[in-house]
Design brief:
Blueprint: H1 3-28, H2 31-34, H3 38-65, H4 67-74, H5 77-108, H6 111-116, H7 125-148, H8 153-157, H9 159-162, H10 165-176, H11 188-220
Helix pairs in contact: 1-3, 3-5, 3-10, 3-11, 5-7, 7-10, 10-11
Transmembrane segments: 9-30, 50-67, 87-108, 128-149, 161-179, 191-211
Keywords: Membrane, Transmembrane, Transmembrane helix
Organism: Candidatus Woesebacteria bacterium RIFCSPHIGHO2_01_FULL_37_10
């Protein structure tokens, strides 16, 4: 298979993954309903940013964990895609709770209620699932700060470890997604479970490679 064909396959898969969320959402809610009220419109944007954040973090992990292979296919564009994709992950994840706050404010007309949405809570199962999302956003923020200061000695030394945040963020978002209404509907539901399996296998492979290298190093020191 030629490099050109592999590139087309990559871009096609990327687009299909990104569309899995929007297609599911607009299968569940008609466009006329979306425009029927501010609440429905805000909820639609909230769902779009949520599903897109999940799709983007999945692709970010796939590219980041196989960068050498993607460089062979995409050339230097692989690095640019990885950077732009990282910014999109944060943009969608950051805007997602903002829409939740706007929804709460639209209903209650109280700024305090909209603000308290961002405060973690463990009172109910729904609150716990929401807290997973807030934890994921906090880790993403740390990752973005680390990326910005990656030329500094401390961050440069531990830069590769910050990449492992993506795995934690992915699973936090995956748990958080259980609070949504679009799981159980195709095609996003199928992608959701497939992504969890793939990322889990990727993480297990990374861990096994790490421990294997550590064992080899320990034997070499004997």
């Amino acid at each position: 298979m030629s490099i050109y064909t592999k590139r087309k396959i990559f871009y096609a898969i990327w687009v299909l993954i990104m569309l899995s969320g929007p297609i599911t959402i607009f299968r569940n809610v008609a466009l006329s309903q979306v425009l029927s009220s501010n609440l429905v419109l805000l909820n639609t944007f909230q769902r779009l940013t949520g599903t897109m954040a999940f799709s983007l973090i999945f692709m970010q992990i796939m590219i980041g964990s196989n960068m050498d292979k993607f460089v062979q296919i995409l050339g230097s564009k692989a690095y640019r895609i990885h950077i732009v994709q990282g910014l999109l992950v944060y943009a969608t994840a950051f805007s997602h709770p903002i829409f939740e706050s706007l929804i709460v404010f639209t209903v209650s007309r109280k700024v305090a209620d909209a603000f308290f949405v961002v405060i973690p809570s463990l009172n109910t199962q729904r609150d716990i699932l929401l807290t997973f999302g807030k934890m994921g956003l906090a880790l993403l923020t740390i990752g973005v700060v680390a990326a910005y200061f990656r030329t500094k000695p401390v961050f440069r030394k531990y830069w590769r470890y910050f990449h492992y945040f993506n795995y934690v963020v992915f699973f936090l978002i995956a748990f958080h997604a259980r609070v949504g209404t679009d799981l159980g509907s195709l095609p996003f539901d199928s992608f959701y479970w497939t992504a969890i399996v793939i990322v889990s296998l990727t993480l297990m492979y990374k861990i096994s490679v790490y421990f294997k290298s550590e064992i080899i190093k320990s034997f070499q020191k004997l």
